[in-house]
Amino acid sequence: MESALTARDRVGVQDFVLLENHTSEVAFIENLRKRFKENLIYTYIGSVLVSVNPYKDLEIYTKQHMERYRGVNFYEVSPHIYAVSDNAYRSMRSEKRDQCILISGESGAGKTEASKKVLQYYAVTCPASEHVQTVKDRLLQSNPVLEAFGNAKTLRNDNSSRFGKYMDVQFDFKGAPVGGHILNYLLEKSRVVHQSHGERNFHIFYQLIEGAEDELLRRLGLERMAQQYQYLVKGSCPKVSSINDRSDWKVVRKALSVIGFSDDEVEVHVHTHTHIYRHTHKGSYIERNSVLKMHTNTQRCSDSSILVGWLSLLGVDFSVLKEALTHKKITAKGEELMSPLNQEQASSARDALSKAIYGRTFTWLVNKINTSLAFKDKFNSKNASVIGLLDIYGFEVFQNNSFEQFCINYCNEKLQQLFIELTLKSEQEEYEAEGITWEPVQYFNNKIICDLVEEKFKGIISILDEECLRPGDASDITFLVKLEDTVGGHAHFVTHKLADGKTRKVMGREEFRLLHYAGEVNYNVNGFLDKNNDLLFRNLKEVMCSSENRILTQCFSREELTDKKLPETTATQFKNSLAKLMEILMSKDPSYVRCIKPNDAKQAGRFEEVLVRHQVKYLGLMENLRVRRAGFAYRRRYEVFLQRYKSLCPDTWPSWDGRLVDGVSTLVKHLGYKPEEYKLGRTKIFIRFPKTLFATEEALEERKHSLATKLQASWKGYNQKTKYRKLRWVLGFMFRHHPRCPENEYFLDYVRYTFLMKLHRALPKTVLDKSWPTPPPALTEASELLRKLCMQNLVWKYCKTISPEWKHQLEQKVVASEVFKDKKDNYPQSVPKLFVGTRLDGDDINPKVLQALGTEKMKYAVPVTKYDRKGFKARARQLLLTASSAIIVEEAKLKQRIDYSALKGVSVSSLSDGLFVLHVTCEDNKQKGDAVLQSDHVIETLTKVAICADKINNININQSSIKFTLGQGKEGIIDFTSGSELLVAKAKNGHLSVTAPRLNSR
Ligand SMILES: Nc1ncnc2c1ncn2[C@@H]1O[C@H](COP(=O)(O)OP(=O)(O)O)[C@@H](O)[C@H]1O
Ligand SMILES: [Mg+2]
């Protein structure tokens, strides 16, 4: 509905509760008219659907339309019969409550079409299984069959239903339709024998003679000419342009098969139903016989073939039937006598029999369909939920109104009563549920009229029954007099005699007038008694009970003959069946469809105001609206309301985290709602006047509009901007190496952005991964910083995972790297080799040495070669490192102890040799001078020395020679050269000459 509000100026309101002037009938009709002109035939009054017959096919019943309404909130989409169907279905599923859809409206207003649309909706949208498919088919196919036998062309409607229909559709727990059941009400049997000018008998008669194959007609003894049969031409219009009897026959024939009639059954059934032809075949036995009797002519029936066909059909004995149709059995002084009938009496006996047969076989047909639709799964039938569909004759007013109209209008009076009770009740219940005070609503309660018709002893039906049953000369007129005597003072009852002068002018003397809720109707009492008695002479009944026709034996039971109890009159039967119907409907949650016909000419696009006003009045739509509007025009669940309007208040936009009711309260206060304009219930907000809601809706529209304007503006700008962007791009490229300036800023930003995104995707994953995308010039520095950061991060992450041993190893390697990397030729070879804790353990060192060390802890020991200071003789020694000194050991002797404090530095060559010199301070006379040593693990050994002695910065790497002190101020020199192999020897110049192989090219 909310979406509808926006379009309200163009096509009125989609819900009458939003009509500002809700008491104005003019405004109401104008709204209907406006919408009708736009082919918007549906409008709501709250949850009631008002439908105006378009008399043309609208493209609003496609499968896509069905899908649109499926599972969607009633108010989210425009009004539609599918919305009502879906809503009922969902309520049934979610609330586990049986539903009913009550369709009302006058003849031709579209009730039957609406009920078919509902069925089709369920057939298409509900889940299905294989079994369900046949049920769906049968449900759908029951319509053409019932219409063929129960519908007829009337002045009002070419396909007027002449019976009331209530159909239950049963759904299983999965929501699939699994069965159905039909109740039929008061078939207009009089149509079988009489039709007003311009009307027809039931469709099936015409369908059969137009559509049946020759062979079938021959077997039935029928001719293709409708004119041959009096019962079919009383209204002088056996052919109707809008009806194709021939193709309809095919449809009906097929539908009968779907429902489960065997071919044989179809034939018998159609025979039985249409036996009536025979009665009235011009020249048939009965007609002539009756006439002849009148003239005491004894001419015999000439057309014996017709007679034979008829009798074989009814399955009764010829002479017995003849006797029964022309005589009446009377009982006088305890004796049974056969009294002959005059022509009129004989005709009426014939008509009574025809009506009885048609009426009873129609009921038989409904039962047969019910058997076919029955939900077979007894076990689960208790779990089935039900949606009932009521398509019943609407309020009817003709020039001459008879017993049928009296029954029909009484039925509508009852439905209106139910409608009032249920709508008021549900309205009141909703207020209670929401904790809102109920204010009494003024409305006309038509119970007074229902009572006038149906009250025991005092009501019109009781009086009619009394006249029908009492001995003596009861007649339609005595009935009228009795009415005057009994209910003459009733406010809703008038007769010619009781009326004032003005009313008298428009009333016949044989009429009584009822002031129905929907309007005044004059009923002519002629025929009331007969129609109410609906008598079939006992002898005719007897004949029918003896019939051998399979269907008739089921329709006329022998028990009827022996039953001494008087059969119920038609009106009483009808009254009782209506009471049952009300009970059924009361037990379900109702939805309403109120149908209106826009003109009497069945024309598309014509909206006759007078006619529509009349229907609006007698459908009680204005009252319906008044009840609905009595308290609050609009109500909506908090979440729905908040969702729609939250953007109108800064506190609720974009979301409200608190209680829904507080959110709604904040919102409406912000919108300036006055306290009397709304109430907050338990789950819903109630808004009293439509204008309040319209204002809110307008505010929403405005907001949407301003948003749209903004969007539009930026869209317009967008097009110009695309051109500008291209230019900017070219400029940016040209100026890319310039410092940031307006010409290149977009380009640079873009390039930066792309680089950063690329980097983001390609960051190195491990410390050893040295890959890094090349940065654009503008980002070189940042890239470098980022790279370091990244590496630090990786290292940090890596460090967190390493063991203490490994950490120690790495620390030494870092020192080695700092000291030797790129400086000494054999450094790279040392990198992959792990440094060991010591090269000599306890067993390799003389115990005396260990003893001499005492508590001094040895940190590293390695075999070395010592070159004598004089002569440079090579001697095998051990170098031990403790916490405080480096010690040179020969076997068991500590040959030289160099305190780290006395260690000036360490010299080593840049080549691949293992020679090194430990320089010591000379002031100390005890010192023997610098030590010239060689280690096979020189990198490792010197790294240990550097760490133990804390001399990392005192390791000198020399290119070609090392000077060292021999003691007492004398110097020695070691010369280094590259060669093919390692050679250490005293040179002629007295220097120590070392040749080392080149391992790594620099
Ligand atoms: N929704 C509709 N769309 C198109 N035509 C419709 C619609 N409803 C009714 N009609 C037309 O009006 C005719 C009478 O409708 P019907 O349902 O038989 O009336 P009712 O059952 O109320 O007497 C239909 O035969 C059809 O031609
Ligand atoms: Mg109908």
UniProtKB/TrEMBL annotation:
Cellular location(s): Cell membrane; Cell projection; Cytoplasm, Cell cortex
UniProt cross-references to InterPro entries, sorted A to Z: Kinesin_motor_dom_sf, Myosin_head_motor_dom-like, Myosin_TH1, MYSc_Myo1, P-loop_NTPase
Pfam families: Myosin_head, Myosin_TH1
CDD domains noted in UniProt: MYSc_Myo1
GO molecular function, one term: actin filament binding
Region (Actin-binding): 578-600
Binding site for ATP: 105-112
Predominant cellular place of this UniProt entry's protein: membrane
Source organism superkingdom: Eukaryota
Keywords: Actin-binding, ATP-binding, Cell membrane, Cell projection, Cytoplasm, Membrane, Methylation, Motor protein, Myosin, Nucleotide-binding, Repeat
Residue span(s) of domain TH1: 824-998
GO CC, one annotated term: myosin complex
Limits of the Myosin motor domain: 12-701
UniProt xrefs under PROSITE patterns: IQ, MYOSIN_MOTOR, TH1
Gene3D superfamilies: 1.10.10.820, 1.20.5.4820, 1.20.58.530, Kinesin motor domain, Myosin VI head, motor domain, U50 subdomain
SMART domains to which the protein is assigned, alphabetical: MYSc
GO biological process: actin filament organization; actin filament-based movement; endocytosis; system development
Similarity section: Belongs to the TRAFAC class myosin-kinesin ATPase superfamily. Myosin family.
Protein name as annotated: Myosin Ic, paralog b
Species for this entry: Electrophorus electricus
